[in-house]
Design brief:
Blueprint lengths: L4 E10 L3 E10 L3 E11 L5 E7 L5 E7 L3 E8 L11 E9 L11 E8 L4 E7 L1
Antiparallel strand pairs: 1-2, 2-7, 3-6, 3-8, 4-7, 5-6, 8-9
């Protein structure tokens, strides 16, 4: 089976007062649907700071919080497609810390993609 997304690379960095987690996505086919979620644990007091992407208006983004995590979500805008051929996209979750660097290995992500042919693929992992 040929992978719909050629590569998914993740990176993270934290200091005592700031953290960020990035997902780079290199695709091989056009996507009619994509949802990306990053789950940041709040074990050392992390709070939402910002989020960004390089999809140029093709996806909308939002965040929510629970007692134990910040959930960053990017979802395709209705009627849009992601033209992945020879293109790398990225999403970034940023959070504020209260003086203690956060270990990011407990933070997770899930990416769900669908092609125009209806093939859905799910990618999950840790930072």
């Amino acid at each position: 089976m040929i992978s719909l997304i050629a590569t998914v690379n993740v990176s993270s960095s934290t200091s005592g007062y700031f953290g960020s987690e990035t997902i780079d996505i290199s695709c091989s086919v056009t996507l009619t649907n994509i949802t990306i979620q990053i789950f940041v644990q709040t074990t050392v007091g992390a709070t939402y700071n910002a989020m960004s992407d390089s999809f140029s208006g093709v996806v909308a983004y939002s965040y929510s919080t629970t007692a134990s995590q910040i959930i960053y979500t990017w979802t395709i805008v209705s009627g849009q497609t992601v033209a992945c051929v020879s293109t790398t996209y990225d999403v970034k979750a940023q959070f504020t810390l209260i003086g203690t660097a956060q270990v990011t290995s407990a933070d997770t992500y899930i990416i769900t993609t669908t092609t125009s042919g209806g093939v859905t693929t799910v990618f999950t992992g840790h930072f």
